[in-house]
């Protein structure tokens, strides 16, 4: 069970005043999150224009690694970032400051090829499953056992429906005999209920401004570190009971 910090994602700069968008800001923010209890980091590198960029991964990963030595660092490979299959593959193949892992969304057509490219690079894979259809596709892959972990990442705003989808994905993984670590996370209004569910299931979770900007009581958090500290306290209370 770990708490991973997702510090920025695809959020726009007006989402929160402390959203980190430069390599320097991400490095400082990541260090604060680790100090607050984050065991790992999930980052969306940004180019000089503030937009997400796979090509910017080297500089960002290096800056964060220097600020957080020994902490595992992951990045997104979302198809929307480069919005072109060839550019996505070329950017990943060109990485030299390799992240420890990268997330791959099974909803995306090129996911199997991206996963194979990451393996060739020596980068771990977080398999992102947002729907039961994603889960069914994942378990049919011949090499589905060669992933670091499974992300059950639900973006359905309605909590009962989101919970049903999460349980459905978990059931498919169970039936297929998948024995990889699960990290569960929601978005906005489902973030904290999913933190609670992850704790109950003894799964990992993630929190941060990529997924939501509020604390469990609905107040807007000061920054990523405050969100991480709250989630870490939630998990710690279970380990102590």
What's this entry about, in short?
It is built from nine helices and eight strands. It has helices at 23-36, 57-67, 79-82, 85-93, 111-121, 132-140, 159-175, 191-201, 224-240; strands at 3-6, 40-43, 72-76, 101-105, 124-129, 149-153, 181-185, 204-207. It has an eight-stranded parallel beta barrel with strand order 1-2-3-4-5-6-7-8, surrounded by seven helices.
Report on this structure.
The protein is 43% helix and 16% strand. With 241 residues, it is an alpha/beta fold. Helix 8 links the parallel strand 7 (181-185) and strand 8 (204-207). Helix 1 packs parallel to helix 2. The mean pLDDT is 96. It has a single domain (3-240), classed as Aldolase class I (TIM Barrel, Alpha-Beta Barrel), CATH 3.20.20. The chain has an eight-stranded parallel beta barrel, surrounded by seven helices.
CATH class: Alpha Beta
Query: What number of domains?
Result: 1
The total of helices stands at: 9
CA gyration radius, whole angstroms: 17 Å
Low-confidence spans: pLDDT under 50, at least 5 residues?
A: none
How do the strands line up in the largest sheet?
1-2-3-4-5-6-7-8
CATH architecture: Alpha-Beta Barrel
CATH homologous group name: Aldolase class I
Estimated helix fraction: 40-55%
CATH fold-level name: TIM Barrel
Total DSSP E strands: 8
